[in-house]
Structure formats: structure tokens, C-alpha cells
Amino acid sequence: MKIGVIISSPPLAEGGHLVLARSLVEALRDAGHEAGLVVTPQNRFGRLPSSYLAAWLTDVEVAYDGAPIHQVISLRFPAYAVRHPRHVVWLNHRMREYYDLWERFRATLSWRARLKERVRRRLLHAVDRRLLTHRVARLYTISGTIRERLRRFGGIPAEVLYPPAPQRPYRCDGYGDELFAVSRMTPLKRMDLLLRALAEPAAQGVRCAIAGEGPDAGRIHRLVSDLGLDGRVTLLGRIDTGTLVARLASCRAVVFPTYDEDYGLVTVEAFASRKAVVTCTDSGGPAELVQDGVSGFVCAPTAAALAVPLARLAGERGLAERLGEGGFKAGAEITWPRTIERLILP
């Protein structure tokens, strides 16, 4: 079949949403389908209507060569506004500022802006509900966290379908002396919580490499110095795919203390590299995947609580190996062939 994978993205952006979309295209091709990526715009805040309209007007029923596109799979807002008679949504997320992050977002606004955004929010809820419940053959979410948001905001039922790790040459080169964290530097990813945990007495001597860039990078750099972690924390900045795979292959374990994450591909990437993952009880998707004491640790989102598993893994190589094997077994159950089988309509 000829299948279009529909994703929306801001200009010049890179992120997990595009990694997932490209991996899906590759997996569809491996399964014998003719698949391609269609990117619709995700305009900056305040210009959402034009983004939805652009996706709505995008012709995804006929390919460039005039042949029909037999099915489309859309992944996030506003890409799911596309129109196709055989449309499957595998939902990454809706615009979180108008849903689960509304209270945090509205606290940053003036009273006039709150009135305006409240109206926009109400309209967007109505539009999203219509789009996700009409002319959609199947609705999946990438995690139970996303499914719960759909239930909470709109009462929309969906099935969970966890994404496998991207199709990269993951390996395990051993269990080195450093923990590893990789994430976009934003407050929700809570790299500051990781640093404060490393500064706890319980985690003295634990070393960690942190990769990523983003608007919170300056604050994270300053916090490393303020907490006296210069000798134990290495900030790598942005890294390429080869470096990511190599770091995952050689680290002791992976730390991902994010807040209410949609899914977090790094969790299954760590599992594919036979590495345990440390996450938090309120981390969303990662906390669904990590089984405490089996494939990693799930702890309370405090520096003191997080410091304990970091110190255990840093001090016990055998524990890191055992939990890494547990993660590998868990990740092996989430495969692209099984995923494709559920995404393809009969």
C-alpha cells in the first residue's frame, strides 16, 4: 500500500516527534509498503488557526505521481486535521498549553491575555474533539499518559500503542563509570532536579554526562557551577545520532527525571542498549515503561529520593547489568512489526 505519515513541525525544528515519524516511515517500508513523510506547518503561538487550516487543505489522497494514497497515519496537532477516508491517528499530543499545562500557562499571562486565551482554548477543544472523533478509523495514543489526557479533556476513548525504539544500531559496550542523561533543555525535562540530586550527600562521587540544548541550557550551566558539580558533571551540548548511540552503549545507566512526559523515546533507546532507566513517579510515559527494581528505578520527584538510585547504580555495576537486562527484555516486547500490524487498516 501507499501510505502517508503526517506530522506537523515548527520551522527548522528537530525533536522526538520527527524521529518517531521517520522511524515509522522506515518501518512501513521494511514491511513492504510504499511510505513517505508529509510535514504540515505548526505555526508559532497565536497562529494556530492557520496551521490547522493548512493541514485541513493539504491533499493527502493522491501522491505526486497521481497514484492514490491508500491510508494516512497522523501523529500530532495540527497534522490530524488532514482529511482522508482511511485515517489512523497515533497521537503524540495535542497543544499542551491548552490542556494539561493550562494552569501553568495561564499563570504567565496578564488578565487581558487570560480572557483571550480562555476563548481560544475553548474553541481549540471543540475543534480537536471534532477532528479526533469524526472520520478517524482508529485512534491510538503513544502512552497511557496521553490516553488519560484524552479522557480527562474531552472524554475521548483511545487505545495505547507504545512506539518501539527508533531503528538505530544500538549496542552495549559495557557499563562505564558515568550515568547519562539526554534531553532538550526545558524546565519540564527537569535537568535541574538531576543536578540537585547529584549534589545530595547520598550521591557524592557520582558522575554524569548530560547531552542536549534548549532555552534552559544557560540556567543548567550556571547550576552546575553553583552546586559545585564541575568535576562530576559533563555538559555535552547537542550531540549527533552516532554519539548518542555510543553514549548509550557505554554509560552505566540512563537518568530521565522529566515531568509528565508524553512518552520519552530515550527510555526504549536505553532498553535497546541494555541500560537501566531512573525516572520519577510523575514522569508520565517513562514511569509506565520502567518497572521499579526490574528495568530501573521509579522514585519520588525530589533530589533526596533521586539521589539514592543514582548512588546505587553508580556503586554497583552488577545491579546496573541486571536491571539493564531487564530493560532489554521489556523493550524487546515493543517491536515495529507488531506496531505496523495494528496501524495498518484491513
Largest sheet: 6 strands, parallel
Portion in strands: 15-25%
Q: Compute the CA-based radius of gyration.
A: 21 Å
Number of domains: 2
Described by the principal axes of the CA atoms, the overall outline is: globular
Summed up, the helix count is 13
What's the count of strands?
12
Uncertain runs are none
Q: Percentage of helical residues?
A: 40-55%
Order of helices and strands: EHEHEEHHEHEEHEHEHEHEHEHHH
Q: Which strands sit side by side, in order, in the main sheet?
A: 2-1-3-4-5-6
Mean pLDDT: 95
Distance between the termini: 11 Å
Structural class assignment: alpha/beta
What are the salient characteristics of this protein?
3-stranded parallel sheet; 2 domains; 346 residues; 6-stranded parallel sheet; 40% helix; alpha/beta; Rossmann fold
Can you tell me about this structure?
With 346 residues, the protein is of the alpha/beta class. It folds into two domains: 160 residues, Rossmann fold, CATH 3.40.50; 155 residues, Rossmann fold (3-Layer(aba) Sandwich), CATH 3.40.50. 40% of the residues lie in helices and 16% in strands. The protein contains 13 helices and twelve strands. The strands form three sheets. Strands 2-1-3-4-5-6 form a six-stranded parallel β-sheet, sandwiched between helices. The longest helix is centred in the middle third of the chain and has 23 residues. The chain is globular and about 60 Å long. The mean pLDDT is 95.
